[in-house]
UniProtKB/TrEMBL annotation:
The keyword Hydrolase applies. InterPro entries: Metalloenz_LuxS/M16, MPP/UQCRC_Complex, Pept_M16_N, Peptidase_M16_C. Belongs to the peptidase M16 family. Residues 1-27 form the signal peptide. Residues 196-378 form the Peptidase M16 C-terminal domain. Residues 41-185 form the Peptidase M16 N-terminal domain. One of its GO terms (molecular function) is peptidase activity. This is Zinc protease.
Length: 463
């Protein structure tokens, strides 16, 4: 829910050497650190002649300040507007010309750019991506045009989308101090007053090799990729950027009571979102609650036989949909979501009470060993399926590295998920799914106009 997708001379050459030795040749992934602080993770996958390059910057909307919300996402757009050597639009044209794909995305925690193409074109992709890491051309003329695109994106994807608007208002209410309360795309007022200098300041502050992770996955030779990374990324100096551990902590004050809000927006039916504050993964080897919360979400909404769908949609028919979600991989505080749409003639209050009944059943009676075994089998199956995709492998590596964990934690996470007990699942439900950590958002549907309905059905934004 937190990711917004979009496409968009320091002349001194540095002799780049490794600060740490590479892992043994048999290790895969391969990890390197360049002198300028750029972390490089390479994973070999020789099943097809394809390569994925991703550059992850450890800066997202949570690093913004009031008055310039949305600047991380706005700069993502501007990254496709060219450099002195690569004119506007040329980046995308060159990737497309060799049959490749490219895009970018911004989240609360990070911003990332990627290309997927034949492995023989990796040098070109590295040359293009490294060029805009340091040499981006940010002009008033291009920014004035692109910020209008961003504002229209906000209108189409949030202001005119009732469920997205409800989620945005939920987050703004649930969090009192933490920057997760601000939308990734930014508040409209901030976008309307944003200047090119805001984007320039963001670029200078965060876009540097020592604040980035370069991930390469595919049909590659690690030593060749390392040589390319030295050639293209190694020539830039490190910036004066605090590491994740050095940045000022942004601690959310404890919630001391239930929060409720109602949002009026054009829609056919009501909608309900219940968000509980929960912990996230900080110590993969020793934490256990995030793993139990992950299993709990799967028990509630992991398959057609999961509790919410079975009880609320198929049996009582109080809802036409009911879902649960939780991510243990976040830089900031976690939220455990349960949401749903009541059936016609039923209310959001009835749905909330039905959800509470299902939670109480878990707290009072726990989950069955059969449920636990089924969910764990799904986790393993999902992991196996993920390994079939080079893009998903790169995403897993980049995401873990960008929030302060290690790509090597992936195996530990899987092992710890498989070790979760039924009692641990019951314990986290009892401890965290309580009113004192709960925010409830209800959509009060307003009449739909033909104009807005037609406009929303034709949304397609790509950069």
């Amino acid at each position: 829910m937190k990711i917004s997708f979009c496409p968009s001379r320091l002349i001194i050459f540095l002799c780049v050497t490794l600060l740490v030795s590479p892992l043994p040749a048999s290790a895969n992934p391969h990890e390197y650190l360049l002198d300028n602080g750029l972390k490089l993770v390479i994973k070999e996958d020789h099943r097809s002649p394809v390569v994925i390059q991703q550059v992850w910057y450890k800066a997202g909307s949570m690093d913004e300040v009031n008055g310039t919300t949305g600047v991380a996402h706005a700069l993502e757009h501007m990254m496709f507007k060219g450099t002195d050597s690569v004119p506007t639009g040329e980046f995308s044209r060159r990737i497309a010309a060799v049959g490749g794909k490219e895009n970018a995305f911004t989240s609360s925690d990070y911003t990332a750019y990627y290309q997927q193409l034949h492995q023989r074109h990796l040098p070109m992709a590295m040359e293009l991506e490294s060029d805009r890491m340091h040499n981006l051309r940010l002009t008033q003329e291009e920014f004035a045009k692109e910020i209008q695109v961003v504002m229209e994106e906000r209108r189409l994807r949030t202001d005119d989308q009732a469920h997205a608007l409800l989620y945005e208002k939920l987050m703004a209410t649930a969090f009192q101090a933490h920057p997760y309360r601000r939308p990734i795309i930014g508040w409209m007022n901030d976008l309307e007053h944003m200047q090119v200098s805001d984007a320039q300041d963001w670029y200078k502050r965060w876009y540097a090799p020592n604040n980035a992770v370069l991930v390469v996955v595919g049909d590659v030779d690690p030593e060749s990729v390392l040589a390319l990374a030295k050639k293209y990324y190694g020539r830039f100096s490190a910036g004066k950027i605090p590491s994740l551990s050095e940045r000022k902590p942004q601690i959310e004050p404890p919630q001391i009571g239930i929060k409720r809000l109602v949002v009026k927006a054009p829609a056919k039916l009501p909608h309900l979102i219940m968000g509980y504050k929960v912990p996230v993964l900080k110590d993969p080897k020793n934490d256990w609650e995030p793993y139990a919360l992950t299993i709990l979400a799967e028990v509630l909404d992991g398959n057609a036989a999961a509790r919410l769908n079975k009880a609320l949609v198929r049996e009582t028919r109080v809802a036409i949909s009911a879902d649960a979600g939780y991510s243990a991989i976040e830089r900031g505080p976690g939220t455990f979501y349960i949401d749903g749409t009541p059936s016609e003639g039923r209310t959001a209050d009835e749905l909330e009470q039905s959800i509470r009944t299902e939670i109480d059943k878990i707290i009072q009676s726990g989950i069955t060993q059969e449920e636990l075994a089924r969910v764990k089998a799904q986790v393993v199956a999902s992991r196996t399926y993920q390994l079939d995709s080079t893009f998903a492998q790169a995403m897993q590596i980049g995401r873990l590295e960008s929030i302060g964990l290690s790509h090597r934690d992936a195996d530990i996470i899987l092992e710890r998920l498989q070790a979760v007990t039924a009692e641990q699942v019951r314990n986290v439900a009892e401890k965290y799914l309580i009113d004192d950590s709960l925010t409830v958002a209800v959509l009060d549907p307003q009449p739909l106009s033909e104009t807005s309905s037609s406009r929303n059905s034709n949304i397609e934004l790509k950069h």
